[in-house]
Amino acid sequence: MTTTDVRAADTADRGLIVRLAFGSMAAQTLRAAVRLGVIELLGDTPRRADEVAADAGAEPQPMTRLLRALTSLGLLREHTPGSFSVTPAGTLLDPRRPGSLTSFVRMFTDPVATRAWEHLDGSIRTGDIAFDAVFGTDFFSHISQDPGLSAAFNSAMGQATAEAAAALPHAFDFGRFTSVADVGGGDGTLLAAVLDAHPGLTGIVYDTAHGLAQAPRTLQEHELTQRCSLVAGDFFRAVPDGSDLYLIKSVLHDWTDEQAITILSHCRAVLPPGGRVLIVEPVLPEVVGTDAEAHAADDAVTYLSDLNMLVNVGGRGRTRKDFEDVCHRAGLTLLSVTPLTRAAPFSLIEAAADFPHTAATGT
């Protein structure tokens, strides 16, 4: 490698570090755009920054700077000096559009989601949940005390589930079952998609009362109130019986192994012969690849999410071996792991009951 090549490589590496260091600033730029409603104000045709500023109650020059930053992030285009339009990616920040990620951005750029990250190094040293020390209570208790924040979290989780909801109904043989219980199902987005695609199924959305707050609207929108019931409860104590398929999406990663085993054990306790537990979560590889470009997108989000579980709720991402272990300890046999390619990085983890077995529940 020549000296010129070394210098070019060094420049590229420095650029990577600088972009990563500015990552939190990019996130707050998205937050400002959402809070000011600039995507809605821009609409479908190019508009001048001063017009957007006037409609947003903002100053023209700072608004121009914000819109140019959003342009640099690929969310807007600047056609002539000070005239902007929205890119396809930018439309995802418009709450009026199907598939919007506005609530997701609001939630994950809110101080309730970001403040504990300032203490990531402490969580790495001790294994403790930084959120609890910062806010004086655990994450889910904190948001349950604020109806607005709880609604925002439920909406964000519904938006985050949209891709999986589109892919899951066609990625698994639901036709061999009669009833699906979505454990920790939140606003019902995922189960509604499954029931829409499989008219012979009935369903149960099971979550806390706060978690279910927006679910009635989802069922009404999908005309599923006669085929799907809402059950409030605590999956650390029990899950509803009467279903032959128990669906668990983006739940186990919120909790420690012992807590995950408890949830799975409760599913195992009510699982009939031939029944299944279907876990929908990312499955971490045993070894992370070394090609930075190949792993910069999906894998980076997966591992950052894993750290988010550490600092905010105490959970973790898991490898296939990890899932096999928690399933086994809950009296379940892991049958298969299938990547959900249309909703990467999620996979479908299918498990069945061991017979006979006495599950080793956690605390």
Question: What sequence of helices (H) and strands (E) makes up the elements?
Answer: HHHEHHEEHHHHHHHEHEHEEHEHHEHEE
Major sheet details = 8 strands, mixed
Structural class: alpha/beta
Report the principal-axis shape: globular
What integer value in Å does the Rg equal?
Answer: 22 Å
The CA-CA distance between the termini, in Å, is: 57 Å
Number of β-strand runs: 11
Number of helical regions: 18
Q: Kindly state the mean pLDDT as a whole number?
A: 92
Q: What is the share of helical residues?
A: 40-55%
Low-confidence segments, given as residue ranges, are 292-296, 357-363
Q: Report the portion of residues in β strands.
A: 15-25%
InterPro entries: COMT-like (IPR016461), COMT_C (IPR001077), COMT_dimerisation (IPR012967), SAM-dependent_MTases_sf (IPR029063), WH-like_DNA-bd_sf (IPR036388), WH_DNA-bd_sf (IPR036390)
Pfam family, one: Methyltransf_2
Protein name: Hydroxyneurosporene-O-methyltransferase
Keywords: Methyltransferase, S-adenosyl-L-methionine, Transferase
